Amino acid sequence: MMRVVLIPQFSDNYAYLVIDEASATAAVVDVAEPEPVLAAAAAEDVRIVAILCTHHHFDHIGGNEALIAALADGDLEVFGYAGEAERIPGLTTALEDGQELEIGALRGQAIFIPAHTSGHVAYYFAAGEAVFTGDTLFAGGCGRIFEGDAAQMKASLERLAALPDRTAVYCGHEYTESNLAFAATLEPNNAALTERCAEVKRLRAEGKPTVPTTIALEKATNPFLRSDSAELGASVERQVGGLGGDQLEIFAATRRLKDNF
Ligand code: ZN
Ligand code: FE
Which residues fall inside 5 Å of ion ligand 1, going by CB? Predict the structure, then answer.
C-alpha cells in the first residue's frame, strides 16, 4: 500500500514522502529543506530511496545536494525530466513523458506538463490514486507561466484533468486560499466554489493544510480548468473584452488577471 506524508518547507512549500509500506522505503517529492524531510523519514521509519523533482526552481530542488549528502546512499535515485536534467542537482535518471519508475513496490509515471518551466513533470501513481503536480496544477489555481505560453499551460492542465476524478492532487505550495479568493471573483454563483472557499477558510484558520485536493474538486472549482464555464467566460470578458468566447483566449486572460490579483 502507498501512503503520503506532507512535509512543510519554507513558508508555503510542500514536500511529500511517498511511502511503500511493504518495503518501508519512500520517495520524496521536491526537497527545499533536507532537515524536515529526514525527520519525517525517521518518524515514519522509512528509508528514502528516491527524490522526485517536478521542476528546477530553487524551492523544489534547492535541498537536493544536502539531502543526497545526508543520506550517503549510492543507490539513491534522483528523477527529473530530461529536458531540464542539467538544471536539477544530483539527477541520476532523466525521464521522458510517460516513463515509469518504481519506488519499492509502487509504480509511478512521469507526465510531461510544461509551461511553468519548460521541463516540468508530474508524478502519477495510478494504483495509489495520487498525482504530484508541483507548480503546474495548484489547489484552486495554476502556476505562473515562466517558460512557455498559455496554450501549453492549458494543455498541461488538461492532461492532469483527464486523470480519474478521485485522484488525490498534491501540489507544490499552500496557495489555496488566495487562489479561491480570485476564483470567487469570476464565478460568484458557483455553489461548489462557494462551499470550498468556506471549507478552506476553516482549515487555514485551524492552521491545517488544504492539500490534497482531488481532480473532481479541481474540475468543479478551479478557474484554470473552467474556461468552458459561461459565468467565468462572461466575468473575464467583462474585465478584458474582445475574447469572442474563445476558450484559449479566456484561459490566457484568466491567467493574466491572476498575475495581477
Ligand atoms: Zn516553481
Ligand atoms: Fe515553487
Answer: 57, 135
